[in-house]
Design brief:
Number of strands: 6
Order of helices and strands: HHHHEHHHHHEHEHEHEEH
GO biological process, one term: nucleotide catabolic process
GO molecular function: nucleotidase activity
Protein name: Pyrimidine 5'-nucleotidase
CATH class of one domain: Alpha Beta
CATH topology of one domain: Rossmann fold
InterPro entries: HAD-like_sf, HAD-SF_hydro_IA, HAD_sf, Pyr-5-nucltdase, SSM1_domain
Radius of gyration: 38 Å
Length: 325
């Protein structure tokens, strides 16, 4: 019996010794393997990236891209405009959303109706009268200052507001709204046909004027063409500072209202040399209307120069319906 116990004890000691030896061997081997793992940084880096970085789906949810930020800001701005975007104001059927086609902008005064109507002469007289009465100037001085402000700012009212704190809405009531347009303008079938011949599937058609909205609305209504335009961008006398052509901000305003982002998608016709020159400088394509009887500028204002609006058929043929249709 004693011999059996001794044999068992001897066997246990032997097994413990072998186990201890195996553990020492494992530890030694693990120590030798550690440097081998450490010299594989590329594999380790990939593992860290794959574990630490969230999926593309999660990234898109957590952090919007720059394009999304711009689009969100642009959309919010468009939504804020929606309440005032009607033909009674700065209107666009796109409500400021990006347009899917080019835009053709028409000036109003001395563009949709001819200079021979003498509306410009009547307006100039009312402006001179306003200068004389409100600034206590002689008639000659009023005429001189009116011309100076028009030359420097594009609008006489801009100079009055900037230098004399004149209420622009009062000015509008005494000048633009005081014009006897009902006695001068009548429906123009030829002009209406021109506008109807424009293919609206190819281009949007809008009004772009330095006048206040009430004046622009009166003119197109009396001409019988108020239904031919998708929107109106005007000089808003209720906003300070005033923004008008040829200031770049006015052209950007028109683009925003029309929902067009690229200047090369903007086409324009205006009787003003400065306005057409500025439009071309800003990347628009412009047709300068110089009526028959007026001197032709030595240096063209813009890409095109026309004598009559009907010539737009040749200047912008891509926007008109084909003869077969």
């Amino acid at each position: 019996m004693t011999s059996v116990l001794c044999a068992s004890a001897t066997t246990s000691v032997f097994m413990i010794t072998r186990l201890s030896s195996s553990l020492r061997t494992f530890t030694s081997t693990r120590t030798r393997l550690t440097p081998t793992l450490a010299i594989r940084p590329q594999t380790t880096s990939r593992l860290i990236t794959s574990v630490a970085a969230p999926s593309k789906t999660l990234q898109s949810k957590r952090r919007p891209t720059a394009d999304r930020i711009v689009l969100t800001a642009y959309t919010n701005q468009a939504l804020n405009k929606r309440a005032t975007s009607t033909m009674t104001g700065d209107q666009s059927q796109t409500n400021g959303a990006p347009a899917s086609k080019p835009v053709l902008f028409f000036d109003i005064d001395n563009c949709l109706y001819p200079r021979k109507s003498q509306i410009q002469d009547l307006m100039a007289e009312l402006i001179d009268k306003f200068f004389s009465n409100h600034l206590s100037l002689s008639w000659d001085d009023a005429v001189k200052l009116h011309k100076e402000y028009y030359t420097n700012y594009g609008l006489a009212i801009e100079g009055l507001v900037r230098h004399h704190e004149i209420d622009p809405l009062e000015y509008n009531s005494k000048v633009d709204d005081a014009l006897p347009l009902e006695d001068i303008l009548t429906p123009d079938p030829e002009l209406r046909q021109l506008l109807q011949d424009i293919d609206r599937s190819k281009v949007s058609v809008r009004l772009f004027t330095n006048a206040y909205k009430t004046h622009g609305q009166r003119v197109v209504k009396l001409l019988g063409i108020e239904d031919q335009f998708e929107g109106l961008t005007f000089c808003d006398y209720a906003e300070q500072p005033l923004t008008c052509k040829p200031a770049k901000a006015m052209y950007l305003k028109a683009m925003q209202h029309a929902g067009v982002e690229r200047p090369e998608d903007c086409y324009f016709v205006d009787d003003s040399y400065q306005n057409c020159k500025a439009a071309q400088e800003y990347g628009w394509t412009a047709a300068h209307l110089v009526e028959e009887g007026l001197p032709v500028p030595r240096t063209p204002a813009s890409q095109y120069q026309i004598r009559h609006l009907q010539e737009l058929r040749n200047v912008y043929p891509q926007f008109f319906k084909s003869a077969s249709s």
